[in-house]
Amino acid sequence: MNALEQKIVKLIEPALTDKGFALVRVKITDGLRRTVQIMAERIGDNTITLDECALISRTASAILDVTDPIPEEYTLEVSSPGIDRPLIKLADYERFKGFTARVQLGMPLEGRKRFQGDIVGAEASAVKIKLPDAAEVSVIPFHMIESAKLVLTDALLAHSQQKPNVA
Predict the structure, then answer these.
(1) For a designed S-S bond to 24, which of 30, 34, 39, 129 qualifies (C-beta 3.0 to 4.6 A apart)?
(2) What is the domain range of residue 101?
(3) Is the pLDDT of residue 153 over 50?
C-alpha cells in the first residue's frame, strides 16, 4: 500500500467503522482517469448490499472532498471483496485457514514468486501455505507478499453458501 492509500485509509476507516463496516482495502489505479477503489464489508456479517455500497461511497466522498488528499480528478468505486476476496491483512490468513490461496511475491522466495496452496495460518509476520504435493509447509514472510487472494473452489463456495457471513 502506498502512502496516499494509507492516508485515505486513515481518513475514512473510522467513519466506516462507526457505520458498521470493515474497510478491506483501498487501492488507487492510474489510467485515463485515476480510480480510488474502496473495498468494504459489513462488520460481523461480511456481506454488503448495493445500498450499503452507496452509503459507503457517500461517506467516503464527503470525507475526501473536505480533506482533499487527491489533487487531481478521480473516480470513486466501492465494492464488496466477493467470495474469492483479496487477502490483505495477516489476520485474513488465520480467518481463511484451510482454503486455497494464490500468493504473488515482489521478490523470489525458494526460487519462485508465485505460490498456490492451502492456507495453514499465520504467525508473527509470516504466512504458512501448504503447496500441493509438497512435504513441507512454505513459510512466506508477510512483507514479501505483493498480492494474494482466495481461489474460488468448491469448498469455498460450499462454505459461503452454508455461512452467508463469510467471504
Answers:
(1) 39
(2) 90-155
(3) yes
Kindly indicate the confidence band of residue 163, based on its pLDDT and cuts at 50, 70 and 90: low
Polymer length of the chain = 167
Q: Among 79, 67, 66, 4, which residue's Cα sits nearest to residue 34?
A: 4
Residue 84's φ and ψ, nearest 5 degrees, are: -90, 55
3-state secondary structure of 114: strand
Q: What are the φ and ψ backbone dihedral angles of 96, each rounded to 5 degrees?
A: -110, 30
DSSP β-ladder status, 137-141 and 126-130? antiparallel
- Partnered with residue 26 across adjacent β-strands are 38
Q: CA-based diameter of the chain, in Å?
A: 54
Q: Please indicate, yes or no, if residue 128 is contained in any of the structural domains.
A: yes
Q: What is the pTM of this model?
A: 0.82
List 138's β-bridge partners, or say none. Answer: 129
Structurally, the chain folds into a number of domains equal to: 2
For residue 19, the number of C-alpha atoms closer than 13 Å in the C-beta half-sphere is 19
